[in-house]
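Lecture 7 notes: from sequence to structure.

We start with a single chain of 702 residues. Read the sequence below before looking at the structure.
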Amino acid sequence: MQGARGDFNANSSALNKLSADLHDVPQSVVVVNKALMQSQGASSLADALRNVAGITLGGAEGGQIGNNINLNGFSARTDIYLDGFRDRGQYYRDTFALEQVEVLMGPSSMLFGRGSTGGVINQVTKKANLKESTEVSASATTNGLVRTTADYNHPLSDTSAFRLSAMAQNGKASTRDQTDVQDFGLAGSYVMGIGTPTEITLSALIQHNHDMPDYGVPPLNGHPVTVDRNTAYGLNSDHTNQDVAALSAIVSHKISPDVVLRNQTQFNYVRTSAVETAPNTIGTVSANGFTPLPVSAVSSLPLSSLYVRGQSHDRDIRDYSIFNQTELSAKLNTGSIKHDVLVGVELGHDGYDNQGYYRNGSCNGVALNAPSTVAGYNDCVPLVNPGYSAAGSNVASQPGNRAGGSANTIATYVNDTMTLAPEFKLVGGLRYDRYIASITNSLNATNAPAAAKNTTLPYAQQTVNFTSVRLGGIWEPSAEQSYYLSYGTSFNPSLEQLTGTTGQQNLDPEKNRSYELGGKWDLANGNLSLNSAIFQIKKDNARSLIATGVYELDGTVRVNGARAGATGRITKDWQIALGYTYLDAKIIQASALDGTLGKVPANTPKNTLTSWTTYKLAPHWEIGGGATYMSERYASNTNVVQVGGYTRWDATVAYTQPKYDIRLNLFNLTNKMYYDALIPSDGGRAVPGTGRTALLSVNYRM
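Now the structure, written as tokens:
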């Protein structure tokens, strides 16, 4: 029964750096596979990650667009991977080309290099195989979103195959205004030498997104302002256009049954063209123009008397990277000790170019921007019923700062899983990284007008040398159970995201440490997998604000947590996917000016619970559903804006046949008003989640 089509349980990882058997990985790993995603009607990476307790979503933020994710209380913005390679481009990721999504919890720089404070997210793409198959799907929602996907796999010989996947969608992504999307994508892979000592895999992903950005609603009186869920403050001309290309080549050669040499090269390119208007500040309007209310102020004015100042966030961004990894894996013995050794070398280059634009407008005939500044405040609209489609649409766009950056990575690493006895294993690894980064800004602290209060660096260069460590002990008293204790480190260079402000070019990297104690169990003949763990993640010498836009290494962030999960079949007809995470997160050291000492890190709820279950009622009928619970959290590290907790219920019913499925998914059954994503800037904005929505899909297999 294990491994059958439709199983939620996935007991292995596609990451070559990890043991294929997750019992031999001394860290928590959550795998969201294709069967679970299809059962839930998940079509985006964000949808898939709702199955991972401990993950929260962020919206478009400052210079960042695309999937902004917090994992275990820390940003994972640059910790998203595609087939084991960093996928740092700023775009919204789809699931049409994915076989599964893997989340490795805790600092993992020994395996992946810089970043990975809270963990890493790896997208595993579909690969060609020797089984002929064709799968076509079509779906529509009550919001008007129409989507179709296709997946075609064709063997070309006994040792080669070709696979092509495609996606197109059009319509409103949620019940909220201003969420129209027009996206399409193609992904292909060609594999030759299947089953032979030398296997070559070529793959490509091409995707185009034409979406409308959603910057949510601004705060008032310490919470997101209480307006209708569908209220949006942008313009109907706002858009985010993204063109994505990812190319990969893998050569794997089995030198002997116990020694494999593997080389992989991946090139990623993402261009983003954005014209976006965000709700910046709530205030009043008079003959003197717009007067903002401080975020921390308490206002008793009626909502109908208040206005929102809009701010343009227009930019043209290019992200690209090319990386190469060469790895040798070997099984060998030294006396009675068995070794699984991985030795690797990584070379890589990242590039970043961001041309910003601004639209300086007026409110009630009074300019919103001081002379010679590029703040981009472009309009003011009523807080209630803003009529976003017309406001500020005639304000001219002007070029602003052009930010550039590049980085080179040279790394070497070794990891050894030692079997001391059938029940005991030790895992140890070291990685040395040399990270060389430089950035430029055309508008900066030296040439910007004084009124702009610019602390951006005109130029900066930084070289970081860092050695990461991974240690773990595993006790496996039987094949069905595993217990582990592990320690890991990671580092975050100040120019990690190829941006920076005054002082950052001279800062050492932030250093992160993790301790984890956990267990993994298999029940029901391996069809049901359970896991639990307690852990601590601590970020030392964290960057802390000492002056406007100026930072020093004077902070400490600590997260004590616990997690538990269960995935698989309780009976032949009953499946579950459950996850719970508890995070006690706190900023335990910070500068006085920073104002975050003793606060909870942004977008970090204390409790998150994800659940999904399906039951086969009859040979061809299936019902299911689940709840997502998240406790209250804060929109920024200052804890001024609090966003309440919520429980969202979803359900599904499906009619299944060997050749096709007809499925109905119902999202947010109770029409709960909740906030899905948080944005720290401007005091803390919050993006409302979708209202009650139905999705009808047909999936046909040939």
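The chain has a mean pLDDT of 92. Keep this in mind for problem set 3.
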